[in-house]
Amino acid sequence: MNLYDCKILLIDDNAELVSIISGILTKSGFESIYTAGSCSSGLEVFLKEEPQLVILDIMLPDGDGFTLFRRLREQSQVPILFLSARDEDNDRLFGLGLGADDYITKPFLPQELLLRIHAILKRVYFSSVQLPKEEKVLIMGKREVSFENAQVTAEGISVSLTAKELLLLKKLNQNRGKIVTFDAICQAVWEDSYYGYENTLMVHIRHLREKIEEDPSHPVWIQTARGLGYRLKKEEGQR
Fold this sequence. Notes:
alpha/beta; Arc Repressor Mutant, subunit A; five-stranded parallel beta sheet; 22% strand
């Protein structure tokens, strides 16, 4: 499981805010977003979907987030981030004192929310994971890519990759065979969302294809998932 495979449950009765946050998370690369507008429906979805993170509002129509927090904690130690319009220090301290993983107040910056979500998920689920040693060489048909030297070699002739092309290819290779969303690629390469980088990303993909594809006009290795992102094709027989 990678970070973007994590299920996120958002419990808030503000439909407009729920839509905005869901959009932010989806654009960032998260695929499994669940929502609920009350304590009762939130608990129901929680028990059914078993999310890896809960974003919980304090003011709900049939109760308060603090009480629901305790009920969720009776079921699991899933990380919970309080999201509230109440900025009083007492509420913040009370929520954190209950054992919440973080507390953010409305209004908030989208990037701040994402940074806090990433920090929680990485700390809880990935800090103790031993990551596989990064590959040094990538084979694509007749071409060989050296990640150490940032070079593509075919039939004894080598061409160099730019720093951004190298980051882009590494990101695709880390998820080889799977779709990597536009936003996830831009986060890895430019540390920013896809918005504003649409043309820049297309240009980098085109240049990268010119270096690794037999026929860049009919790409085999870097495949386009229309409206979603790109996928790096696996070698035949590769799992």
